[in-house]
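Predicting holo structure, 1,3-dihydroxyacetonephosphate bound.
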Amino acid sequence: MASASLLKSSPVLDKSDFVKGQPLLRQPAGAAAVHFQPISPSALTIRATSYAEELVKTAKTIASPGRGILAMDESNATCGKRLASIGLENTEANRQAYRTLLVSAPGLGQYISGAILFEETLYQSTVDGKKIVDLLVEQGIVPGIKTDKGLVPLAGSNNESWCQGLDGLASRSAAYYQQGARFAKWRTVVSIPNGPSALAVKEAAWGLARYAAISQDNGLVPIVEPEILLDGEHGIERTFEVAQKVWAEVFFYLAQNNVLFEGILLKPSMVTPGAESKVKATPEEVADYTLKLLKRRIPSAVPGIMFLSGGQSELEATLNLNAMNQAPNPWHVSFSYARALQNTCLKTWGGLPENVKAAQDALLLRAKSNSLAQLGKYTGEGESEEAKKELFVKGYSY
Ligand code: 13P
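Done. Tokens:
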């Protein structure tokens, strides 16, 4: 049952106001030029998702001390690029072998609280015939699912993109819940060199908010991910400025869509200089800017901030996270890395059965390092050269 204290109330929106795109909730007194109708108390609605309590519990479980998310939801096309980098063909059997290796790493659940899967993996078994979802649950890891349908060009913008997937999302989400998923990811992107245009930011924020509301209605905790791409020569100040704008809009629309903040997780980019900037930032600078952004924009009702790695090296992503956890934060500040958890593991495996154990050890080492970073206790000793390699790929698509 939904807990009354967690339910949100919101004014019903007048459709004509909405179509005109008027700001609806916070009108300055005496703003006569703006069309605004006072909202009577009887027009208040309560949005009650029957999953409210479960959503809050799931989000808290994922945001538990010393743990973070393993993003292993590469689409088949992206997974193909990963496999090609170690000379393997992009077949279902190879994807299954790789994902089996990841989820069966012994003791992974000590450091990993959630795993984001691509649809194929959610319905897949390990090479030994065990349901991957069941194996995750046995490891104490919450299964998640990528529900967005990827990026396409945004007409009317400056070569920017928007994220598809809202059509049919409710029924897909319900089916994923039945299959064992308890959280969902939707990744949209904002490009700094291409703008970002006001249109692209608004589209990204609105899409994320609709997805979040639909996910919650179907029992899935949404991970809200407006990735601000690393591409560009800009400095850290510019990233900070864009990130403030993006998160302001995201939370405006999340609130308009009556999303339960206690039942979401965020997946932001860290605030860094562009990948092609001549000026690099130290972990302390990245932490200062990123925490300043979060404190300005993210309500403390949100349980967890799970960063993406975005092309940072494995080591950089861990050091930056560690720097952010040197003092207590209002939210759990942790990781939801794909490349920065998997890179050395994938290279160590190389597609050879005899390397599975060494590859799992490499994954566990990264997971443990990031677990320590979540607790602010990472020292950086004993890192391999592979872990120091930058993973940025210009124009990277997921
Ligand atoms: P990276 O950590 O490789 O940027 O991937 C994050 C992501 O979006 C997957 O969910």
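The chain has one domain: 52-388.
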